[in-house]
What does this fold into?
Amino acid sequence: MPGAASHPTLRPLGLTRVQFVAAASERGRSPSKARDEYKALFREGKPAAWFAEPGVELPDYPVSATLVDGETSKFVLRHEDGLETESVLIPMPRSTGTTTTLCVSSQVGCAMGCHFCETAQMGLLKNLRADQIVHQWFSATHRVQHSASRAVKNIVFMGMGEPTDNIDEVIQSVRVLTDHDGASVPASNISISTVGNPDGIVKIGELVRERGFHRLNLALSLNAPNDEIRTQIMPVNRAWPMARLKEALVSFPRFSQAAFCVEYVLIPGVNDRDEHCDEVCAFLRDIRCSLNVIPYNPRRNSPWPAPAEASVERFVARALTNGQFTKRRGTKGRDVMAACGQLGNEKIRQRKLVHDDGSSQPIKLRISTREATREEQT
It folds into this structure.
């Protein structure tokens, strides 16, 4: 297209419809035609022919592997630089039928250093652009998922990375994902999880104040009953102690009766005692929230095993007795390192299966690619 190279790189998956039409118009496309092309890309997975021209970037990231554990699956997208994103598709049974939740990554690796998390062992390798975040939804919708009855309904920013550490690109990706002419995911079906960066929470709150985003969900990864324990397992607590986190949550704009999700990874011998539960409930007492208890999923070379089911049930029961609305998150995807806290090895085919006791062994999984499905030793 004449003159296209003089414009900034156009990345269609990182733009809202308004932004895309404006950029396409500068390149000589009529607004009506550009809008149709935007809809076709997001709704049908069909890129316009001119997207292949210079000045336009719509990468065809290879789906390098899809690891399947029951109905839960993890797919890996390989970028041009060799780094990979990991995303998880999780079936969620409901009374009206099963829906699908997509867990997306906002970074490759993570700088937060949480000791219980596999991703933290990588360090931060790069921030993802908005189009690279949206590309995970695009791939899940048009390349990995094929059943209309199991289309992605919910999106959670709970994959690799800390969303508030890449907040501008995360917010832009949310704008794209909620665009009515594009992915059209309701803001109420999107959750952003954070380790508790107060400044990031404020920025998310600014988005929530905008019309159309009032019901965007915020989740806090708490994981400890007090500052002493939280600092031991989450070094970021030195900068953002629990009192400051509570101030940020109390100040967060609320436009509905929906409760915050407070995530609590239950680690044996660390944060699972009765008095720990009582402390957590006291901390949350004046915050409308749901306490989501997550049994620890061992990372590679983990110093801790997974908790016994009896320990999980006892903790949940005590929280309920304290008057705290509490749910136990089901464990899904642990056998393919797709469970909470297990994402992030950039060399997926060297991944090892981590048992409940923290030991590991090579894992034999069904590796599905676009070319073939086969048994493979990884």
In short: Residues 4-52 form one domain.
